[in-house]
Amino acid sequence: MAKLWSKGYEIEPLIEQYQSARNAALDAELVCHDLWGSFAQARMLHKIGLLNDAEWAAIDGALRQLLHEAETGALRPDTAEEDIHTAIEHRLVAIVGEAGKKIHTGRSRNDQVLLDLRLYAKGHLLEIADAALATASSLLALARQHEWTPMPGYTHMQRGMLSSVGLWAAAYAEALLDDCVPLAAAYALNDQSPLGSAAAYGAPLPLDRAYVAELLGFAQAHHNVLTAGNSRGKGEAAVVQALALVMLDLSKWAQDVLLYTTREYNFLRVPQELCSGSSIMPQKRNLDTMELVRARAQTVIALQGQMLATLAGLPSGYNMDYQETKAPFIEAIHLCKESLDIVKLFASRIEVDEERLQAACTDELFATDRALDLARQGTPFRDAYRTVATTAHEPEQTDLAARLHTRTHEGAPGNLDLDGVAARISAEQTAWDTRRTHFEEAIAALVGENTHQDR
Known about the structure:
Layout: H1 13-26, H2 31-47, H3 53-71, H4 84-96, H5 109-145, E1 150-155, E2 158-164, H6 165-190, E3 192-193, H7 209-215, E4 220-221, H8 225-230, H9 234-260, E5 268-269, H10 288-311, H11 326-349, E6 351-352, H12 354-360, H13 367-376, H14 381-390, H15 400-405, H16 418-447
Parallel strand pairs: 3-4
Antiparallel strand pairs: 1-2, 5-6
């Protein structure tokens, strides 16, 4: 199988296997994205006069055939082809002949893979944002159902102050909303078309990079060609960093669920169909999926570190080291999406033991309340603190819901503003829907029925 860089000699099989086997397997995820880039490349070459009408029509038709093969899973690269770029070019030449050899004019595999990864990043960030917002909505529904259900609030793993299930569930809904900020930043960083930067030094051709960016639904071309080339791995690492923040929140929630469902706490219950069992202990119901969420957060954090460590200290221009950032990038995306779906499922099915929670709200939770009552009467807070700390108190008979209602400042258990949280989710969804519409409409227009007329 001739390589795109072939100069008439055969590479050692061990070298070929070491360089290309894993990369070719990963590129199976990028087939459609590479074809989209070739659609845009062909249109641009036609626009600037480097493909005539007949050549463009032939290439465009062949790309449509290959896109159908890709969508049915029939088009995949093998180790001998090294990557999806080579596989597609070989198939294109086999279909249309000499015209197919012109598709690579002004393009390098460097800017091709950059383009594929950015298109892949944008598509999957849209899916992850949708999943994050759907999970936030499930947590918000749990918060609404139990807005006034009291529970102990913990610091240092010890009971601290009165809290509520509403506060706990809404906290994670809002955390996922906060996570949409770095997700959007990662999207913006990847919303620049690198095509036309070639091997990071441009080409002595009148390439219309802005036209290609428009065709592919990018906000703009990545301007400086060396910046674009040097950004390989950086844009992907930004995505994984954003995913790591999502996973941190999912891991914390999973840990809470694992703790609160133990017999010692027994605040929450999970339906048995969400649990597995033990091969030796008949009574066991294990929330091992929550353990996997916790562990996979560590994996995504490690993948982020792996990518940054690979990139640190590399010189300008392309280096083969960049290839090692592809696998952790793709793996992190899948792990985060799957984990969001799992947490959404658990949040929608979790049950609350209100009686157990009520009983757990013991007198020590109100020590701070007593100190603040004294402060409200004029005692300096530090003196009130010491008075409460050194004075014995009889257990209080108290209406816990009424206590929650006294916590009225913004964001406290008595003022969660769950309607405001719902409005934030809706606004965030609208923003992501706008990004999706722009991206998907551009791709649909690019690969739709061809009239062989430039836009």
